[in-house]
């Protein structure tokens, strides 16, 4: 039996669940209190946005060659593991003693 979970940034701390794709949806709360502080007006205060660093060319090639094959939906390959626009770097030889 599969279970389906739906989370939304519009409803932090709440999850909609289903036992199967076509079953009725139930909303549950997983937070005891709001995960984010509120202002005096009752608006949520979110943390600062963290902008991720660009991944290295070597890592991009690794994702494309090794991970993309495990993504079941072929339309998602380019979204998660697209082919890098630069040629593959040559591995450096490290002298072992």
Automatic annotation (TrEMBL):
Region (Disordered): 1-20
Protein name: Chaperonin: PROVISIONAL
Organism: Gigaspora margarita
């Amino acid at each position: 039996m599969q279970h389906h979970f739906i989370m939304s940034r519009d409803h932090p701390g709440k999850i909609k669940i289903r036992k199967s794709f076509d079953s009725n949806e139930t909303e549950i709360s997983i937070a005891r209190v709001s995960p984010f502080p509120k202002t005096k007006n009752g608006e949520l205060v979110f943390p600062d946005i963290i902008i991720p660093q660009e991944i290295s060319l070597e890592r991009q090639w690794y994702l494309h060659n090794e991970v993309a094959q495990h993504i079941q939906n072929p339309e998602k390959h380019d979204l998660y593991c697209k082919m890098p626009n630069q040629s593959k770097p040559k591995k450096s030889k490290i002298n072992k003693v």
